[in-house]
Write a structure and sequence with these properties.
This protein has about 280 residues and is mainly alpha-helical. The chain has 17 helices and no strands. Among the domains are: about 100 residues, no CATH class; about 80 residues. The two termini are about 50 Å apart.
């Protein structure tokens, strides 16, 4: 199997893939740039960035079918060494690779971070927008939020941080998004864009679906004073669902027996009971 076919089938690089390509070069009696690539990647993963950089520099020309991987790990090393001006050029092979590299989204996040560090924030925003569909949320939303905040666009930053906090409660980015939102609330005052009720409910529902019954119940309880109408009733119903899911049958029965809610909330309760 040719190195090109191996590269096209790769979703992420592995020691086995590199070893296979190295074997092809060995059979051809050619130098073994794949070994340099593997050693360079291992060095980056081991945080030996200064050691990895010379190994990976120029490697894409010797190993064109894996130039995107060489470039991505070189860009990662340069970023960790705070050589931000070198990050973008290192990542160019990722965006130039045909067929499209699976590393494009990660490369866009890495390049945008370097641009922000270089005070080229609007370029970072444009880059993140252009490659948004290739990035993985919530990292992409967090990066965009940080970039908007860096140029003083607090409303857009708040909307993106809300998207992270309410949409991805299990993400490690959620606590940082919350901290940013709390600061923005103080800074913006009446200009702070309020979160949508369904987004707030969605966060608690995701926690409930993840089996976090006690935290989800507390979340629903905290939302009740902030909600009205059907959304408020849905939050009240989900409190009962959280009690039921936690095997607190007596409390769940007593709570739900005394609950008066709208028809939409009753439908929600019935749907949960059937699950």
């Amino acid at each position: 199997m040719s190195p090109w076919i191996l590269r096209r089938r790769a979703v992420q690089i592995s020691g086995a893939a590199v070893a296979a390509i190295a074997g092809v070069w060995a059979l051809r009696g050619a130098p073994d740039p794949a070994t340099d690539l593997k050693v360079g990647i291992d060095a980056v993963n081991a945080s030996r960035f200064a050691y990895a950089t010379p190994l990976l520099t120029g490697l894409g020309k010797k190993l064109p079918q894996l130039a995107d991987y060489a470039g991505f790990y070189l860009g990662s090393a340069q970023s960790q060494l705070a050589n931000y001006a070198a990050v973008g050029p290192a990542l160019e092979p990722v965006f130039a690779q045909i067929p499209r590299s699976p590393l494009r989204g990660r490369a866009a996040l890495l390049a945008a971070d370097a641009l922000v560090k270089l005070n080229r924030t609007q370029e970072a925003i444009n880059l993140l927008r252009d490659h948004y569909a290739e990035t993985t949320p919530p990292q992409s939303d967090m990066a965009l939020g940080d970039a908007y905040l860096a140029i003083g666009d607090k409303p857009n930053a708040a909307v993106l941080y809300q998207k992270v906090y309410f949409g991805y409660p299990q993400s490690p980015a959620a606590p940082r998004a919350l901290a940013a939102l709390e600061k923005l609330k103080l800074d913006m005052g009446a200009g702070y864009p309020p979160a949508m009720p369904l987004a707030m409910l969605g966060r608690a529902v995701k926690m409930l679906e993840a089996g976090q019954n006690i935290p989800a119940r507390k979340e629903f309880e905290s939302l009740i004073p902030q909600l009205g109408g059907a959304e408020r009733d849905l939050a009240r119903v989900r409190i009962g669902v959280s009690l039921y899911n936690a095997k607190d049958d007596t409390q769940a029965f007593n709570y739900l027996s005394n609950l008066e809610v709208s028809g939409e909330a009753v439908d929600d309760l019935s749907a949960n009971a059937r699950q």
